[in-house]
Amino acid sequence: MKEIFKRHPRYAQAPQDFEALPDNLWIRCPRCQELLYSKEHEQALYVCSKCKYHASVSARERLAITLDEGSFSEHDAGMRSADPIGFRSSGESYADKLTKYTEQADANEAFLYGTGRIEGQDVVIGVIEFKFCGGTVGAATGEKLARAVELAVERRLPLVLVSGGGGMRMQEGIISLMQMAKTLAALDRLREESLPYISIMVDPCLGGTTASYAMMGDVNIAEPGAYIGFAGRRVIEQTMRQKLPQDAATAEFLLQHGMVDMVTSRAEIPSVLARLLKIYMAANPSRERHLVGQLA
To answer: Does the predicted TM-score (pTM) go above 0.90?
Structure first.
């Protein structure tokens, strides 16, 4: 009976040692502000369980999500940008900023590429690293993109590129703009060999990236809600002096207007890629001739 009338604390006791709790136990969704348990968010591939917002992931996380485990082999990992025009901003040189970007992104450049497998199928895959200067394309990035295409041609493999970022890198001036032509010329060689190129666009995909190689896939895929276009909403509205539709330049808007072929959730992308690759490679006569030549 004493236990029934005994006072009990109304709230759970807070831990005595707050330092024992990890700082990143919970994170807040930037779109709907839902509080998400970090472990569950990671298991959901960084997609919000409430609003399905696809949060940004690093290039290496993207590779881990997309490829068969342990299958990725990186190429040209040591290639990095130089400072071709001696650019300075706010008293800081571009060369110094490159050092900061490298430390921040744990990568030498804004693009990683190599070979891997998707459900057992060999591919050449490249991924933009947004943490490195906003995923912008400079001379080194453009060179690595072109080499990824050349590797696909050399090995007779399909090409998958995951594109995002802020377009061409202004700190390299006209040299960065030349990468648009360079990457398109490389993709022409891939098309001549009848090898498939599948482009995946993630949030955000802007500027010269969208205006060049990102939109040139045999199949163009976008993640849900991704902002894809040449310029940001504010710049367009100020130029046109009118408001854009609320969903303008989103992946769903582009799908509705025929600019992308499908909008696919992050978890489904590997299986979708696997099906597409099987269809394309089975119908590739040049690959069959190449294999016959090797057997002969």
So the answer is: no
Cα-based distances in Å from 194 to 71, 154, 288 = 25, 13, 11
Give the pairing of strands 35-37 and 73-75.
unpaired
The total of structural domains in the chain comes to: 2
The CATH number that applies at residue 137 is 3.90.226.10
Domain that holds residue 31: 8-55
So what's the pLDDT on residue 295?
A: 35
pLDDT score, position 291? 39
Both tokens of residue 143? 């060179």
SS3 54: strand
Q: Which amino acid is at 206?
A: L
Reported as type and span, the H/E element at residue 141 is helix 139-155
Rounded to an integer, the average pLDDT of 117-137 is 97
Q: How far apart are CA 133 and CA 139, in angstroms?
A: 13
Tally of CB atoms within 10 A around 177:
18
- Beta bridge partner(s), residue 81: none
Give the Å distances, CA to CA, from 65 to 48, 202, 238.
Answer: 16, 14, 38
The answer on pLDDT for 128 being more than 60 is: yes
Considering only CA atoms, which of 65, 72, 73 is closest in space to residue 45? 65
Do both 229 and 123 map to the same domain?
Answer: yes
Residue 74 domain-assigned (yes or no): yes
Determine, yes or no, domain membership for 3. Answer: no
Q: Which residues pair with 123 in a beta bridge?
A: 116
Residue 75 burial by Cβ neighbours in a 10 Å radius (0-12, 13-18, 19+)? middle
Indicate the SS3 state at residue 10: coil
What would the mean pLDDT of 109-121 be, rounded to a whole number? 97
